[in-house]
Request: fold
Amino acid sequence: MMEGPAKLLCYSVRFGCAGCRLVLLLSICLLLISLVGGSVQAESMLEQSASRLITALGEKGYHDT
Reply:
């Protein structure tokens, strides 16, 4: 009995082009979701760091005037 990737490959071949397109579409969707999720998290971390820096500079008396 086949397991893992071999089983998936067998199912893709059995479904023909429609199966291959489905696997490709799902892979692209997962990749996009992971990229978008990573960029949102990085942006919020950047905003938090900037906010902390501004707060720290304000406490030390540095002003942008």
